[in-house]
C-alpha cells in the first residue's frame, strides 16, 4: 500500500472529485456539460457528471513541453490547430517548438478518433459547462481549454480543479465565469503532491468512462 505523503490533501482523484461535486451541487438542476481534460481529469469528470446528473465529454488539449524538459509547460495546443505559447517559449529554439506542436497535435487527433469514434463532440453552445482537471501548475492546458470553449458560446463556463498555485487560479479567473479550486497553496511544487494515489489513467479507462467502447 502506498504511504500517504504529508503534503497529500486528497486520497485519490475520486476523493477530489467528490469534493468538487459537493461544491458544484447547485448546478444539478441545470444538467451541466462536464468536459474533462484527458487523461487524469476523466475519472473525476465521470463522477462529477453522475453526481450532477449532467453529460460527460472531453475537451482535448495538450501541454507543450519544453525541449529537454517535457514536464515544464511552455504552451498548449487544442483542436482546430489552436496553439498558445507561454512567454517562456521565447527562450527555446523555434524549430524544436514547431516539432513539439506537430507531435502534440497529431496525438490530439488520434485521441479524438479513439475517444469519440462514433459521434461528434457534444456542443457546449448555450450550456452550463464545467471543465475538469485534477490540477494545473502553470494553467497552460486549462487556459487553452477555456479559450477554445469560449468561442463556442457556452451560457456559463466554470473551471474545476483539485489543486493549482494562486497565480494560476488568478489567470484562469480571467478566462472563466467561475473557478473552483480545492487547494491553492503558495508553496506549490507539482499536482501529484496533493494526491496520496496519483496513478496514471490509461486510454482504455478513458474510453470506458466515456461509454464509447466499440468493436
Description:
It is a single chain. The protein is 33% helix and 23% strand. By secondary structure, it is an alpha/beta fold. The protein has a domain at 13-60 and 122-210: Rossmann fold (3-Layer(aba) Sandwich), CATH 3.40.50. The model is unreliable at 1-6 (pLDDT under 50).
What are the main properties of this structure?
three-stranded antiparallel β-sheet, single chain, globular, Rossmann fold, disordered N terminus, 215 residues, five-stranded parallel β-sheet, alpha/beta
Query: Number of DSSP strands?
Result: 8
CATH class of the domain at 13-60 and 122-210: Alpha Beta
Instruction: Categorize the overall geometry.
Output: globular
Give me the secondary-structure category.
alpha/beta
CATH third-level topology of the domain at 13-60 and 122-210: Rossmann fold
Sequence of secondary-structure elements:
HEHEEEEHEHEHEH
Terminal CA distance reads 36 Å
Count of helix runs: 6
State the major sheet. Answer: 5 strands, parallel
